[in-house]
Amino acid sequence: MEIRLIGEVRVLSEGRGIGPVSPTRQLLVAALAAEHGRTVSGEELIRRVWSEQELDHARRQIHQHLRKLRRELEAGRPEAGEIVQAHAGGWRITLDPEQVDEYRFQVLHGRVLAAGDARERARLAEQALAEWAGDVTGAPPVPLAGLPGTWAEGQRRAMLEDYKQVRLAWLEAHLALGPEEWIVSDALRLAKSFPFDDGVQATLIRALHRLNGAPAAIEAWERYRDTLRQAYDTEPGPELHGLYQDIRAHTHALAPVTRKELRVEQEEPVPDADEAGVSAENKGVLATGAYGVAIGTQWNVSGSHARIQHADRDIRIEQPADER
């Protein structure tokens, strides 16, 4: 048996989907499978699956929903319902973590980051990307597809971010092994999925520089800069700023640019949009405020090439040396 979280949430038996069908029961499977065999408390499971307005009702109905989930799986395979078990005041999936596609991807992701050899890094990255789609150069399927809620959205963003990192590592590894035209084509396709990501643009520009020379790379950088200005009134970040300067000066080494980073440990978590007094716009993962423009976990400081990256209890400020 296998559980797939990449794309539509499904439980498979010998390659055949046996459920679940309803979004609520798909969320139950996802919320448990994402823990890779660890127990999820009843209260935590409820908060992952239901909204704040539904919590009281969910507390009364959680056991009924889990029974329905087990019966649905058993209809497809008699023993399948046994993979969902009550344990230590909560619930868990009893399958080996290797039977969950997201877990296999995360294991390979770690190996990609640890690989020192470009050829080995490319091989591992291709294996990891194969968990997302048969064609590693295609657009990624949406994880937990169609499932609502704050928890599901957070999982989607995190999984897509990890996917992007592996795909970039795959492209950079092949670029190090020798530039080929397909690398530019794939970087362009990736840029369509992540249109405002500096890391994706940096890889695209490096590939263009290797294959087509400085004019093509500079044109791509200026096009991206103009897009950022028009969409968010901000500039490319310090990595792209430095890359552009190096190409203009004809001194760009073909290895990935090293970011200048200042790490600031903070006592309290990074405030969310409401706590920071910023105004959220109806553009997905975006807010505007005193720092400038926020896209995801990145604040783009207006009128500057500086970036403020934040996640959990850590802040990373990136700023070109000539702006310090």
UniProtKB/TrEMBL annotation:
GO term, biological process aspect, one: phosphorelay signal transduction system
Residues annotated as domain OmpR/PhoB-type: 1-95
Ranges annotated as DNA-binding: 1-95
SUPFAM superfamilies the record matches: C-terminal effector domain of the bipartite response regulators, TPR-like
Pfam family, one: Trans_reg_C
Bias type Basic and acidic residues, positions: 309-324
Region (Disordered): 305-324
Molecular functions per Gene Ontology: DNA binding
InterPro entries with a match to the protein in the record: AfsR-DnrI-RedD_regulator (IPR051677), BTAD (IPR005158), OmpR/PhoB-type_DNA-bd (IPR001867), Sig_transdc_resp-reg_C-effctor (IPR016032), TPR-like_helical_dom_sf (IPR011990), WH-like_DNA-bd_sf (IPR036388)
UniProt KW keywords: DNA-binding, Transcription, Transcription regulation
Record-linked PROSITE patterns: OMPR_PHOB
Family, per entry: Belongs to the AfsR/DnrI/RedD regulatory family.
Protein name: DNA-binding SARP family transcriptional activator
